[in-house]
């Protein structure tokens, strides 16, 4: 009996060890050329095994005369709602090759969400408010995220293996960066440096008064 329970214990231990071998926590720190955390960067991790895409349904709202959020990222095939939370009307459009559409002047929620089936970057604008800008990054992978003010992204449970890492930012000074990334350790941290135009600021509604509405 004693021997049997020892063997059983060994089996459990080796099974736990095996699962640890296949999953990793990957942390990516996105910084600008001054090594400061970079917000609004899209990081896409493409697996060479090409798993099927899982489309999402997200919202890009118009609130206080800006798009919220400024940058979104979805797998191709996803749909996006464009609710208008302002009292004023907006007229949302894109001329980008990855998706061209317009939603005529509207208030509240437009009737149908817009689908984004072609990978690429979609720049949004508003015909009424020139300063309104936002971006939807349409990806070829499910593994994607947009950095916040910390510049840090954490994938807690990804498979070990070989990936392509793509990083994009609306203000980047170089073409979209792409690099091979081998996830080999259970806890792996990578730093990605992206040179961006440091003079740019997120679009904001102009102050009211003196000629502004
Ligand atoms: Cu508008």
What does this structure look like?
- This protein has 213 residues and is mostly beta strands.
- The chain folds into two domains: 26-51 and 142-206, Immunoglobulin-like (Sandwich), CATH 2.60.40.1120; 54-139, Cupredoxins -  blue copper proteins (Immunoglobulin-like), CATH 2.60.40.
- 10% of the residues lie in helices and 46% in strands.
- It has one helix and 17 strands.
- The protein has one helix at 2-22, and strands spanning 23-31, 42-47, 57-59, 61-63, 66-68, 71-75, 78-81, 90-96, 99-106, 114-116, 120-126, 133-139, 143-146, 152-159, 161-168, 177-183, 187-193.
- Strands 6-12-11-8-9 form a five-stranded mixed sheet, with no helix packed on it. A four-stranded antiparallel sheet has the order 13-2-15-16, with no helix packed on it. It has a three-stranded mixed sheet with strand order 14-1-17.
- The chain starts with a helix and ends in a 20-residue tail after the last strand.
- Bound molecules: copper (II) ion.
- Residues 90, 126, 128-129, 132 line the site of copper (II) ion (CU).
- The site of copper (II) ion has 5 residues, from loops.
Low-pLDDT segments, ≥5 res: 1-19
Rough shape? globular
Give the CATH class of the largest domain.
Mainly Beta
The proportion of residues forming helix, as a percent range, comes to: under 10%
- Can you write the helix and strand succession as a string? HEEEEEEEEEEEEEEEEE
Query: How many distinct beta strands?
Result: 17
**Structural domains: how many:** 2
- In round numbers, the mean pLDDT is 88
Name every ligand kind in the structure: copper (II) ion
CATH topology of the largest domain: Immunoglobulin-like
Major sheet description = 5 strands, mixed
Compute the gyration radius: what is it?
22 Å
CATH second-level architecture of the largest domain: Sandwich
Give the CA-CA distance, first to last residue.
84 Å
Specify the number of helices.
1
Structural class: mainly beta
In which order are the strands of the major sheet placed?
A: 6-12-11-8-9
CATH superfamily of the largest domain, by name, is: Carboxypeptidase-like, regulatory domain
The portion of residues forming beta strands comes to over 45%
